């Protein structure tokens, strides 16, 4: 039986998604909870691995099991065994052809910037802080349109990236402001290592006036990571949505709850 999990988590205390030998990881915690519940060792296959400190509203992962329990039993049982910063939104039994990663059509990440001179308090672990200048989100949006489409994103590719190719397809980037918060939503087929956080650092250089809008075209053509903006911290990054074909009926769309004041 193939079991799909929709998972939310606060990534602050974890070394990312992927299981490792010693550090705490999301995958490690989930696989331990599954073993404690079913006495069966499984391997989780995830839609998109998140890095250390990154959060998720609805990450998807699946595993195969011989344990015969209904969906509600799995949901209540696993949530009772997980730490308070990891929760399963729902569980669904899937057909054998489904794969959490390879069946996914796109992923959407949101980066939240707190643009204010005073360091954030209540949201300090859920935002990236920028205080040097008031950011012009409209300029950032115009510049971001140059990133849409299938392109070579080598200039946003961090070291240790394991992707076979720097070519990715960004479907859309939407930038908006809620009082002192700037929200940057990036939807793509897949992402390079640290790609979104590096894009954010680059757009901030344009929003602050340090660089002009046309510079982003030159940056893309250079394929040089050292010429792009600095990498923004993981605290402000959220995996907010993964899109699948309608036939799978996975239409869960949670909202990101942050105090936008």
Element layout with pairings:
Blueprint: E1 2-9, H1 26-38, E2 45-46, E3 55-64, H2 71-81, E4 86-94, E5 106-115, E6 128-130, H3 137-144, E7 149-152, E8 167-178, E9 181-188, H4 195-207, H5 215-222, E10 237-243
Description:
The protein is α+β, with helices and mostly antiparallel strands and 261 residues long. It has two domains: 2-103, Alpha-Beta Plaits; 106-241, Alpha-Beta Plaits (2-Layer Sandwich). It has helices at residues 26-38, 71-81, 137-144, 195-207, 215-222; strands at 2-9, 45-46, 55-64, 86-94, 106-115, 128-130, 149-152, 167-178, 181-188, 237-243. Strands 1, 2, 3, 4, 5, 6, 7, 8, 9 and 10 form a ten-stranded mixed β-sheet that branches. Strand 8 (167-178) and strand 9 (181-188) form a beta hairpin. Helix 3 crosses helix 4. The relative contact order is 0.19. The mean pLDDT is 93.
Note the beta-strand portion: 25-35%
**So, the CATH homologous superfamily of the largest domain?**
Pseudouridine synthase I, catalytic domain, C-terminal subdomain
Low-confidence region ranges:
none
Structural class: alpha+beta
- Count of the separate structural domains: 2
**CATH class category of the largest domain:** Alpha Beta
* Cα-atom radius of gyration: 19 Å
CATH fold category name of the largest domain? Alpha-Beta Plaits
Helix count equals 5
N-to-C terminal Cα separation, in Å?
46 Å
Shape field: globular
User: N-to-C SSE series?
Assistant: EHEEHEEEHEEEHHE
CATH architecture of the largest domain: 2-Layer Sandwich
Biggest beta sheet summary: 10 strands, mixed
Q: What is the multimeric organization of the chains shown?
A: single chain
Mean pLDDT: 93
């Amino acid at each position: 039986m193939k079991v799909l999990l929709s998972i939310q988590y606060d990534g602050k205390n974890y070394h990312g998604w992927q299981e490792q030998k010693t550090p705490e990881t999301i995958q490690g915690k989930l696989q331990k909870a599954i073993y404690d519940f079913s006495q069966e060792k499984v391997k989780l296959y995830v839609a998109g691995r998140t890095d250390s400190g990154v959060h998720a509203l609805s990450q998807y992962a699946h595993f195969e099991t011989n344990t015969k329990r209904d969906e509600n039993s799995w949901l209540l049982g696993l949530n009772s065994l997980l730490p308070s910063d990891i929760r399963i939104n729902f569980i669904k039994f899937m057909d054998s052809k489904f794969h959490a990663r390879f069946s996914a059509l796109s992923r959407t990440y949101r980066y939240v910037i707190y643009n204010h001179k005073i360091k954030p308090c209540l949201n300090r672990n859920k935002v990236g802080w920028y205080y040097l200048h008031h950011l012009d989100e409209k300029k950032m949006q115009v510049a971001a349109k140059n990133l849409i489409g299938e392109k070579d994103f080598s200039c946003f590719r961090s070291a240790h990236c394991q992707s076979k190719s720097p070519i990715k397809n960004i479907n859309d980037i939407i930038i908006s402001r809620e009082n002192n918060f700037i929200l940057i939503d990036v939807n793509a087929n897949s992402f390079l290592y640290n790609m979104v956080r590096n894009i954010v650092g680059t757009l901030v250089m344009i929003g602050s006036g340090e660089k002009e809008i046309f510079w982003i075209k030159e940056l893309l053509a250079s394929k040089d990571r050292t010429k792009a903006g600095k990498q923004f911290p993981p605290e402000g990054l959220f995996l907010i949505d993964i899109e699948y074909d309608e036939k799978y009926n996975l239409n869960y769309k949670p909202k990101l709850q942050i105090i936008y004041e």
